[in-house]
Amino acid sequence: MSGGGPGSALAQPLRPPSPGRAAALVGLFLLGAVTGFAGALVQAAWFPGGLLLALAGAAGVFLGGTYATRSRGGAVAPAAGWIVAVILLTTTRPEGDFLFGAGGGSYLFLLGGMALAVICATVGAGRQPGSGSARLEK
After folding, report:
1. d(CA 71, CA 121)
2. What is the Cα–Cα distance from 104 to 120, expressed in whole angstroms?
3. Local confidence band at 67 (pLDDT 50, 70, 90 cut-offs)
4. How far apart are CA 29 and CA 105, in angstroms?
5. pLDDT, tens digit, for every residue of 117-134?
6. Terminus-to-terminus CA distance in the chain, angstroms?
7. CB 61 within 8 A of CB 31
């Protein structure tokens, strides 16, 4: 194969993210954690509407992170924060207190949020090639 082009993106060496990108990903992680905490409270308060609102908020954060960073890492960072917050909220305290009940809404929130995270990270705006035209010149 001949050519002086850079080759496939998979063939390029890994580089650490720039400080601005790293700060954006940390911010998205924290935003995902806050969204998970708020969603856990809202989904139980108003069952059908609260569950839909909590899942819509999570999807908005995941997909918004993808578009903000123009990479799939923008969806993975808030999804990781969301999962960490939700998992920490499901554990019981020594006093026996817990935030999530054993109802169907809680399971829909947990499984639905994880499914949304996977969907947004997979389908979201991945890294696109340069700003060249889509048509080949002849």
Report:
1. 9
2. 23
3. confident
4. 24
5. 888 888 866 555 555 555
6. 21
7. yes
Q: What's the CA gap between 114 and 136, in Å, rounded?
A: 40
By C-alpha distance, which of 30, 65, 50, 69 is closest to 112? 50
Which spans in 3-135 are helix H? 19-45, 47-69, 73-90, 104-123
Query: For residue 73, which of 127, 33, 119, 115 has the smallest C-alpha distance?
Result: 127
pLDDT tens column, 88-115:
888 777 776 666 666 777 888 888 999 9
Distance CA 65, CA 16 (A): 19
Residue 73 near residue 124, CB atoms below 8 Å: no
Instruction: Identify the pLDDT of residue 44.
Output: 77
